[in-house]
Prior knowledge:
- The protein is built from 5 helices and 6 strands.
- By secondary structure, it is an alpha/beta fold.
- It is globular, with a radius of gyration of 17 Å.
- The two termini are 17 Å apart.
- The model is unreliable at 203-207 (pLDDT under 50).
Amino acid sequence: MKLKRGARLVVASHNVGKVREIDDLLRPLGLDTIAAADLGLAEPEETGSSFAGNARLKALAAAKASGLPALADDSGLVVDALDGAPGIHSARWAGPDRDFALAMRNLEERLQARGALIPAARRAHFVCALCLACPDGEAEVFEGRVDGILVWPPRGSKGFGYDPVFQADGHGLTFGEMAPEEKHAMSHRARAFAKFVHRIAGDDEPS
Length: 207
């Protein structure tokens, strides 16, 4: 699947923070991006049973509705002590108002109820599945993961979602405390994007 510099690409998300982060990661590729919300595209119901399944569903819906290539991201937090929750339901824990302060409090309450009080009992990882889809139905998925622990109370106001309570292995800052360029260098989304960029670069014809 080829995407040349200047090509128009729909970012198939209505999450402002996610769109901003994806735009930052796409900028070096020289693509002309537009958010699904700016095109008035409806959000499809996420009925997939995996991150990859939901990313594919969203990317194909946006590509077919817009007639343009579309890139969708489905990502979330997987917590060992909670048997993998919230997982693909990470956004739903924030409710219809996308209140992630509430989601983080709920997360902490459940961890405490399970007795997960020390770092070793608070292991978690972020997963990101990216899907690039074309209007003709062609689609390809790229996945990334980053491991770490959950901290409390939340630290930092950067990023979005559960970032203020996630501290990646080998780092002293939470994602909520990191400058965007630092997070982009090692996050689950950055790792998925590295695979995406490699694939796109590999498809390019020599200049």
